[in-house]
Amino acid sequence: MIELDGLTKHYGDTVAVDDLTFTVRPGIVTGFLGPNGAGKSTTMRMMLDLDNPTSGTVRIDGRHYRQLQDPLTYIGALLEAKAVHGGRSAANHLLCLAQSNGIPRSRVAEVLDTVGLSSVAKKRVKGFSLGMNQRLGIAAALLGDPQVLLFDEPVNGLDPEGIHWIRNLMKNLAAQGRTVFVSSHLMSEMALTADHLVVIGQGRLMADTSMKDFIHQN
Ligand code: ADP
Ligand code: ADP
């Protein structure tokens, strides 16, 4: 579960996130919909303690991020393409991440299998396509077997097969009882993945409703 209470972020005169209060529940996929610049990434970065709120709080399963021991075992995220040190192999990259985050090394082979990268585990990340990089990012998010998962615009730039695969993965993670929070600027994408919808515009909460009710009302 993720609980936001009055979450606010100012960058100088820009109010990127404006007093957001909502809860992301386990066992379903919650979509986070809003146009570009609405504040979705900033909100997710604050959920991961990568950015400090101006005011308000985020709790992950009842605790502040900084109170979590080995945070990657509580929350994993696929953020917008973050460069992986390209000279390393996929397995090596994940092994380093596991070692510095209190995660057993046996998880590396498991997550590589989950994302379909076992056959290229020893290949350098430098030669990976966008789709393979995306899968590696997901492997990293899943490495600590966290109950809470964030996906920031995960289908951007992927081919239809990759898009289909990610949608199914998110649904399966939710069906396992996990909390899945996924952002998109496209309602058409949300309609295919999300059970519940949180809508923001200019940093403010516009709707927090089941997908069914949202479609009825709009
Ligand atoms: P979204 O993810 O919905 O596209 P963002 O969270 O990236 O939106 O951006 C929300 C607003 O905050 C935008 O106006 C953006 O320009 C601004 N913003 C985001 N990050 C920064 C930053 N590091 N410095 C200044 N302004 C920022
Ligand atoms: P570093 O440069 O040390 O890798 P980052 O800026 O990547 O640091 O991350 C800062 C913090 O955010 C770390 O404590 C890490 O636990 C958390 N973090 C980064 N990426 C993720 C992710 N994909 N999932 C969950 N937490 C993350």
TrEMBL record:
Keyword Membrane: no
Annotated ABC transporter domain residues: 2-218
UniProtKB keywords: ATP-binding, Nucleotide-binding, Transport
Organism: Streptomyces sirii
Protein family per UniProt: Belongs to the ABC transporter superfamily.
Protein name: ATP-binding cassette domain-containing protein
GO molecular function, one term: ATP binding
Domain of life: Bacteria
